[in-house]
Design goal:
11 helices, single chain, disordered N terminus, alpha/beta, 3-stranded antiparallel beta sheet, 308 residues
């Protein structure tokens, strides 16, 4: 069961962030074997409801979606996946964290979760967003909707470099409080908010030191994208065939407004939304406004299906 006992409880943290929810739901931790790896995921809500599969960003994990999963869970069946090398999923024995490898994981995870029996909604942030739209481009007709959060075929150099600098900081610290100091400085969030979520992102080793809960190999430049070029990613984007929402944080230095607007023009059924008071971590920085946009998109896609 999810618990933010190091800081605020999940539900109290959500209330303080202004997240509207009607039930104090929590997820169930589950695992699935696919593509030679064991994947951890959080399952929220009733499996009889429409399914939303959520993919986190680089160096994050499934709990990064908690403020969105919680209010959606009464109406949607939410699956938040730890991607390879992150959270409680297996690390890749060959250190392959390329875009191709992660899309291949989705090829295996989707049927392993039984999602190939019917369409579902796919939502991805940053690295998870790129994985999502490349997978969607290869599976026409597979999705009810697609939601992409603060990423696209092109990434702004300044934001990418800032993230890389953060990732290269020493990652074996003596206390959890030292990690909290770092995250608080990076995100600007309150101490209670940071402590509440931090325990899902770090682990304590046998030597007593704390470190990130993801494979440090992922931080190597070029490890994620491999041979992919922006032109190839744009080609994938143009093949998207489902209702699509692209959101950007108004303070994001990773995803430019120019790329956001071009993505909206390149495919037929695409809405673009800029979320105020948010940086790259949109759904964590301003969950109420992101939730409003995401829920409207999901509900609209479901309404269209009911009319068919």
């Amino acid at each position: 069961m999810a618990s933010h006992s190091l800081g605020l409880s999940l539900h109290e943290a959500a209330r303080r962030m202004g997240v509207p929810f009607v039930e104090e739901n929590e997820p169930v931790d589950r695992f699935v074997d696919a593509n030679g790896l064991r994947f951890h995921y959080l399952e929220w809500g009733n499996p009889a409801n429409p399914t939303v599969l959520m993919l986190h960003g680089v160096s994050q994990q499934a709990h990064s979606w908690d403020f969105i999963s919680l209010p959606l869970s009464p109406d949607y069946h939410v699956i938040a996946l730890d991607q390879r090398g992150h959270g409680d999923s297996d690390w890749a024995s060959d250190a392959d964290y390329s875009l191709d490898a992660m899309v291949a994981d989705l090829d295996a995870v989707v049927p392993a979760l039984g999602l190939d029996d019917g369409k579902f909604h796919l939502m991805g942030h940053s690295m998870g967003g790129r994985n999502s739209f490349v997978w969607a481009s290869r599976h026409p007709g597979a999705l009810h909707s697609l939601t992409i959060v603060d990423t696209g075929p092109e990434t702004a150099a300044r934001g990418r470099q800032r993230i890389q600098r953060f990732q290269k900081l020493p990652d074996n610290l003596d206390t959890l409080e030292e990690f909290a100091d770092r995250i608080q400085e990076y995100t600007g969030r309150t101490r209670e908010q940071v402590l509440g979520a931090l325990k899902y992102s770090i682990r304590q080793g046998a030597d007593g030191k704390w470190t990130w809960k993801y494979d440090r190999v992922i931080r190597e430049r070029g490890r994620q994208d491999g041979p992919w070029s922006p032109e190839q990613l744009w080609e994938c984007w143009r093949r998207i065939d489902c209702p699509t929402l692209v959101t950007r944080g108004d303070r994001s230095d990773v995803f430019s407004d120019e790329t956001l607007q071009q993505m909206g023009r390149e495919i037929a059924d695409c809405k673009t939304v800029t979320i105020s008071n948010a940086g790259h971590l949109v759904q964590g920085d301003n969950p109420p406004d992101f939730l409003a946009a995401a829920r409207a998109h999901l509900d609209r896609a479901e309404e269209r299906l009911s009319e068919l």
